[in-house]
Protein 1
Amino acid sequence: MRAAQERRRDTVALNSAPPSGKAGIDLVSMAFWDRPPEQRLADFARLRELGEPVYFAEPRVPFVRSGTGFYALVRHADVVAASRNAKVFSSEPAATSPEPPPWLAKVFGTPMVNMDDPRHARLRRIVFRAFTPKMLAKIEGDIQATATRIVDDVLAEGPRDFVAQVAARLPIHVICAMMGIPERARPYVLSRIDAMTEYSGVRGSLASPRTLRLLYGNLKAIVDLHRLVARLGEARRRDPSDDLVSALVNANPDGERLSVKELGSFFDLLLVAGNETTRNALAHGLKLFTDHPDQRDLLLGDYDARIGGAIEEIVRYVSPIIQFRRTLTEDHELGGHRFRAGDKVVLFYPAANRDPEVFADPDVFDITRSPNPHVGFGGPGPHLCLGANLARMELKIMFRELYTRLPGLRADGEPEYLLSGFDNGITRLPFTYTG
Ligand code: HEM
């Protein structure tokens, strides 16, 4: 009886759902994300020109994907409006996209990025202090020392792959140091994060053996990381230090302690958010400065004056994070469309960051662009990237060290891209220098 009711409900939902996609564009298909970045951006431009947000149906895969379907927000004004209005555009049940099935949160806990205030604000407050300019100034010396060591190693080994030798090393070191993860555990942590992010983004062919293998690897990686942090958390509860894990396990928000699950999901969030994003910004940055030598020369002509604008332009131009999602809590009009409560929207940052309504010559990489109101760190609102200033500091220190000690530094060939609709990732980038 219940099965029949559910089937009927599904049929009604299918019949009343708008047609999926438009003009041959399918943001849900992995084939879309496998195309060169310029072609994807051209499709986003076509979607922007359509005006009204386009609906994309997502396949439902039992136990794996909710298969809810979403409207794509591709205009800057719409992404900003949805980010700002968190009461109507909720981050629950999940802001990560595609939407994970409900059992995942039950087993592994919910990271704060998938929560609304006041729960979200309560958790954000616990870690916020670690990201203030005052606290970041304290770790600047450690970031500098790590950048120096990375370049020492490049000089000793010779240049092969910029991602493995440079871009992947700094962010993982920094976030692990902040969390108090011992040096010897870091390669293991990095391998677990890679396994988690390999299975990311919007995937169409979910039933393929490769996708299922990736899914298994992803879940196993989460379990491994949760085990590691549970052990670390126990140790820090007994013997607190000044790291983030100590702050998390000894926090007492509203008289409650963080549960083991809450701790685990916090840990995943900070590791994934603090690692992939900055790594990809570094790798894309080197490629951009190689393809645009005039901009590199402009930067190197007055590094301190130019680097701030250069970092914002890298993040705008590249959009290291491609999308986050929201669920409507009530009927609401946006971008010429009347949404219903329960509808899903996905905020596509690369599309918003190239919107000609806001950015003159949006496809030009211009480190002097001002103002540069990009949404690469998310739109304004309660979920605006917590680690943006940390990422800025890492990029500033790393590029200075690289360009000072490796004259003629440049990418030496085309990057290999991560196949993902979530991370705009580079997995390999050959590089060289003349010194
Ligand atoms: C270039 C680097 C980075 C980019 C492009 C980036 C991008 C983003 C974006 C787009 C969001 C918005 C999520 C939403 O609106 O739902 C976000 C949130 C977040 N980011 Fe970043 N991020 C970067 C670096 C970092 C770093 C270094 C950390 C440090 C741990 C970090 C931690 C976070 C956290 C914890 C959130 C969730 C905030 C909340 O829900 O209140 N990010 N980031």
Note: The radius of gyration is 22 Å.
Protein 2
Amino acid sequence: MRWFTRPAPSSRVPRKAEVLPSPNIWYYPQAYEIENRAQDVDGEIWQVLAESACWQGKDVLDVGCGDGFHLPRFAEQAKSVLGVEPHEPLVERALLRVKDLASVNVLRGCAQALPVADASVDVVHARTAYFFGPGCDPGLREAERVLRPGGVFAIVDLDVSRAPYGDWMRADLPDYDPVAVERFFAAAGFGCRRVETRWRFDDAEAMKAVLKIEFSAAVAERAIAEVLRANDSRGPVTLPVSYRVHVRRKPTGLVIPLHSASDSSSAAPRIP
Ligand SMILES: C[S@@+](CC[C@H](N)C(=O)[O-])C[C@H]1O[C@@H](n2cnc3c(N)ncnc32)[C@H](O)[C@@H]1O
């Protein structure tokens, strides 16, 4: 039997305004598959996740799971894994990917209205999906709703403040403010770990195919030229890419506001 031993709220089709366009994986899923395979070849992100959001024996939810690339990896150790994804063709691709994995399911839905019961998962994971900074509060509230007390929410995203990849991103997104994004997550109670990774492609053609779906034509051309200059002309091509992993744990019990014992005027309640 798949995933459900308990009823879950039924999926509803996400409203158009709720879905953030993701042209890379929506229109170029084959190139995105190459990208996912190239990413984090040394397992640095997985290491940080294992340390801060261990999923062994746990119920895991991957929000914005795309075509489900990360679901089998979670399924190796998790009790159950659910991917939620708003774009129907990707839901179908993800279901195909996990068809032989009994503990994994995929539902159509979006971060702002998760098709998941209250307090029913231990780990919420979102990777380069929806949680990009200011504006993602509805999704943050949903993640908190579906987490059990003590559960962990881990958001993985690119570190736009770091060269070279961040420089290319900012060239295409001049209004993106990495400082404001980090401030937003800190104010929402998340810690932040920076992770230095390597992307590794079998050859230059694979690298070009991926950078072309990530950047405008002009920026892709510049990025490709820089990567080629930094690599031998034949064989595998590598590229340093930095990430942020933001982690927040849901409190296990009553939270008593901080107060100072010497401050008798403090409005915070006293511990009896
Ligand atoms: C860049 S892809 C990343 C996919 C996947 N996490 C991965 O790492 O392979 C971003 C994904 O977020 C999805 N997405 C867009 N709007 C969303 C929303 N409101 N809630 C959840 N996911 C959303 C897109 O459809 C897309 O599949």
Note: Residues 18-20, 22, 24-25, 36, 63-66, 69-70, 85-87, 90, 110-112, 127-130 surround S-adenosylmethionine (CB under 6 Å).
